[in-house]
Amino acid sequence: MKYFMYFFICLAVVINAACSSSEDKLSGDVNQDVITDAGTDVYVEDTGGVIKGEGIFREGCPVTGKSVARRISDKGAKMVGLTFTAVGGEGDYLLMNEKAAFVISNPDNKNTYYLYGGIPIDAIAVRDCKQVALEDFEELGLVVGKLNTADFSQSILRMFKGEKIEIVNDGSDGKAAVVRVTGSDDRFWLVEDELIKYALAQGKTKSLSEPLGIEIVIDYILPPDSTVLNMKITFKNKSDVEKNFISGFAVFFGDSTPQNYFASSNLTVGEFTIDQGIPWISASDGKKSYVIGWKNANMSTINIIGVAGIVDSNQLLSPIKLAPQGSNGDSKVITVLFGVGDSDANSATKELIRFNPTPIPDVSYELFDIYGRVVDSGGRKMANVRVDYLVKSSRMPFMPLDNMYTNASGEFSGKVAKFSDTSYEYRLGVNLEGYPSVEPLSIDPANAKGIEIKIPDTGRLKFDIKDSGGKNVSAKLSFYDKSGKLIRTYYTASGNEEILCAPGEYDIVVTKGYEYQFVKKGITIEANKTAEVSVILNRVIDTTGYLSTDTHVHASPSPDNVISIKDRIITVAAEGLDVSITTDHEFLNGWQSGIDDANLNSVLINYPGEEVTASIPEHHNMYLVEPDYGMDARGGYVRWYGHDIKEIHKLMRDRGAPIIQINHPYEYMKNIKFNNEKCQPDLNDPTVLGLKSDASLWDWDFDVWEMMNGPQNPFDVSHGGKGTFDNFMSFINHGYIKTAVGASDAHNWELPGTPRIFFVSDTDDPTKLLKDKFIESLKGGRVIISTGAFANVLVNNKATVGDIVTDTDKEIDVKLKIQALPEIDVTHFVVFVNCDSKALISTTNPDGVVKYEDTFKVSVDRDSSIVIAGFGNKRLPEGFSQFNPSGVPRFFINPIYIDVDGNGKFDPPGDKTCNYHIDLE
After folding, report:
1. Which of 886, 862, 549 is nearest to 733 (CA)?
2. Omega before 665 cis (within 30°)?
3. pLDDT band at residue 721, thresholds of 50, 70 and 90?
4. Among 114, 262, 452, 799, who pairs with 141 as Cys (CB 3.0-4.6 Å)?
5. Domain limit, last residue, from 507, 537, 567
6. Element (H, E) at 670
7. Which of 259-263, 454-458, 498-502, 703-707 has the lowest mean pLDDT?
């Protein structure tokens, strides 16, 4: 399983800041133009002189010297941003002043990844009744729980659940506007399930968590002149017993805002090592910024079961204690600060730190003005350059505390913190894609004015990538230094671009998936010069009658992803896939916008879908389901929380899913003790999985089985359970006809299409593919899995993958053709009959294009399923995904069914154990 949900996400994207300033001198302030696409010019309606604007300002603009709190009643009063980020609207609550705007979700509105309401879901800096940039913040949620360092599997992590929301002060009196949300704690289902699975892996069991028995009140407070939302959180004990717990936060900053944080030290608690002494965590793309701080706390980050969160490490050592109701000390207050900025990270942090005089325990700070410029070797100004303010403590390496972006004059400026601990060191760092590395500049923040950072000269690479017909094609360029180290990967949609490239000698490998012969060329990049490369990618693998896709891929609408939809689409096309399928976590959407933006409509189509992230029973994909934003802001996603597998399948079918796929199923099959011989779970107590006692542990209403999640060995039984191949063949042996697929589960910049599937198609043009034909192929088993090779099979000159053929002579002719690039070896293949290895056959030309092309006979003594899998010994060549090839099929052909008794159908063998080996003697 490769899914990881992050409470805060480190992002790496190309930034295009929009700043302006005087060119004549170094200034101490950097301004930014207000964006023009986040609202029209301010106008005055005939509404008693109330000034209104567009978007979130439709119900009124900020008033000078005041903050406002109000419930949003206009359906059109929404922030301008991406569909999955700007989700607040009618019924939610707005806190706003002249500098900032925040939306708090109504407890009844479930529009976010975080399941419950009453939390900040939209935030942006404003100016002149306009947003300064597109809103990109996702959500900020409170979590509470108990960390059991002696037995981690028994830890608890629960979410704040808002139940009542009210306006305490609307701001009309000139004081801070206040919105109050009162609620309790409820199950954080993803973590609940992961902890249960972790306990099972330790040979233990864990029950679902119960309410902690506390009341939680959050006052969201926005002063009139501040960009910082103060979150005053009060925990109250409403019971007659003492309460002990810790608190923390889930923060999703947004996919286009790279994150910064500096930790002054780290701490080991039980089996965890955490970064601590973090003054704040910021995120910015140069056009807008967000920042989180925690007053009177030792703010830290911790990773629990792949989940990263913000905590107060003081609480880890000494949890919050609430005396019984009616006693002294039956409440506890913490204050968290959430700020926005109108440009770089420093525009947010310099406002936040004045609310928190000791952001690092026992360490004070002073703010100093810092400014300078970034120029190239010829002194020419460099705009839109991110300058990182790096800090190092005696215990931790240099880490980014803050950042500033240069304006059109190449200038940067800010107010940065210098801490009272004299052991701290400070640097300014610049890292530009395509430029030579720049040595960080050591500085004293108290005397850092008029700094000049010089960027070494770089070169350019102009490339022209065409197919054999002379048409430019999308592709991937992998840059290797002369030691063979991969140092850069670049995806191109057009195949004809000019990019910056640091001077040096490179080997460039140009690829376009498994069907095109890759090209490797050596090239020298010189400073201030443009090198040119022309490449022709010849298609050498004939896949006529098939198209390719990856049925499990993610982009930025998934909370654990930073790659944009457009960039994901480019990677899909560059890897040679014909169909993109959207499978983002708890967001039902399509990626057509990315195809449009990348101008790839002529070569790629997209089918919308969702990954339903039910860790128990298991994650599922559904695709070819249309989004419905009238249902919720996330497209009408499936609420899987607390449901068993049968209920989840029904929810997906009710939502319109024609295809349901069970993802990375190995762990769940082991946990339910799936008996492959009997084709049923042996586990008889669903409660050990956190399910109801009468819950269904298995259900057959699915279509697709993810036999390979990434380039894994589906025959591996070394972890105490049977491999996914054995599971799949158990289904077939008992007459449950499903389709095996391999998928990449690509997150961020991971490669899609390793593995991929080829499916039978009546057209070789993906833009002419009919949905019904795609569904028919997927549901009908007309699929070949590939991690580098492609195979055609024909039985008795008429039947191919997914077909049933009658042969009462009990001997069948199998015609097989195996193709792959010469550098991708296929040494042998295995023929399985009813999941037993019937024959191991060496290929005749393992290093050619056609590895094998011949007809062989297979004897069967009863109705049978025929499966063929090919294998190789070498790692894939440069430019392709690297993995250990042992046990990983180069190709896997879904079953062809042999009707021996002549009754016109496949009569499965029933109870049996698979008996096979896959390696040559």
Report:
1. 862
2. no
3. low
4. 114
5. 537
6. helix 666-671
7. 259-263
pLDDT higher than 80, residue 3: no
- Contact predicate 530/514, CB 8 Å: no
Q: Count CB neighbours of 424 within 10 A.
A: 21
With residue 597 as reference, give the H or E element that holds it. Answer: helix 592-598
β-pair type (459-467, 530-537): parallel
Q: What is the CATH number of the domain that holds 169?
A: 2.70.98
Place of tokens 């090779």: 789
Instruction: Quote the mean pLDDT of the chain.
Output: 90
The answer to whether residues 489 and 579 belong to one domain is no
Angle 536-537-540 from CA coordinates, rounded to 5° = 135
CA atoms lying within 13 Å on the CB side of residue 920 = 11
**Cα 789 to the chain's mean position, in Å?**
28
Residues of 500-509 as b/e, b for ≥16 C-beta within 10 angstroms? Answer: ebbbeebbbb
Task: Count how many domains the chain has.
Answer: 5
CATH number of the domain at 494, please: 2.60.40.1120
pLDDT on residue 708 = 97
Assess whether 230 and 337 both reside in one domain: yes
3 state SS of 717: coil
pLDDT digits (tens, 9 = 90+) for 183-236: 999 999 988 998 999 899 889 999 999 999 999 999 999 999 999 999 999 999
**The two three-digit tokens of residue 363, written as one number:** 């360490």
Q: Which residues contact 334 (CB under 8 A, 6 or more apart)?
A: 233, 235, 247, 294, 295, 296, 297, 312
Q: Within 13 Å and on the Cβ side, how many CA atoms surround 695?
A: 20
Residue 735 contacts residue 864 (beta carbons within 8 Å): no
pLDDT in tens, 757-816: 999 999 999 999 999 999 999 999 999 999 999 999 999 999 999 999 998 888 999 999
Q: Which secondary structure element, helix H or strand E, spans residue 197, and what is its range? A: helix 189-201
Q: What is the pTM of this model?
A: 0.92
Instruction: Give the confidence band of 627 by pLDDT, cuts at 50, 70, 90.
Output: very high
Domain of residue 316, residue span? 141-355
Instruction: Identify the weakest region by mean pLDDT among 19-23, 654-658, 741-745, 777-781.
Output: 19-23
Question: Would you call the peptide bond into 617 cis, given omega within 30 degrees of 0 as the criterion?
Answer: yes
Give Cα separations from 161 to 29, 114, 141, 398, 530 (angstroms): 42, 10, 9, 38, 58
CB 688 within 8 A of CB 207: no
Whether 441 and 488 map to the same domain: the answer is: no
Q: By C-alpha distance, which of 680, 684, 892 is closest to 791?
A: 892
For residue 594 the two structure tokens come to 């990315």
Q: How far apart are CA 52 and CA 43, in angstroms?
A: 6
CA pair distance 118, 472, nearest whole angstrom: 51
d(CA 581, CA 594): 12
> CB count, 10 Å around CB of 857?
9
Residue 376 to residue 144: CA distance in whole angstroms: 50
Q: Which tokens in the block code for residue 88?
A: 């607040």
Contacts (Cβ under 8 Å, ≥6 apart) of 483: none
Tell me, yes or no, whether 196 and 328 share the same domain.
yes
> Predicted confidence band at 65 (pLDDT cuts at 50, 70, 90)?
very high
| 590 contacts 582 by C-beta, under 8 angstroms | yes
Q: Looking at the predicted structure, is the pLDDT value of residue 467 above 80?
A: yes
Single out the residue in 537, 569, 603 at which a domain terminates: 537
Q: Are residues 394 and 414 in the same domain?
A: yes
Question: Would residue 81 count as lying in a domain?
Answer: no
**Contact residues for 834 (Cβ-Cβ < 8 A; gap 6+):** 729, 733, 864, 865, 909, 912
Query: What is the residue whose two structure tokens read 């910056």?
Result: 500
Least confident of 319-328, 360-369, 508-517, 745-754: 319-328
Closest CA to 556 of 577, 576, 580, 585: 585
Tokens of 463: 């490339």
Are 181 and 161 in contact by the 8 Å Cβ rule? The answer is: no
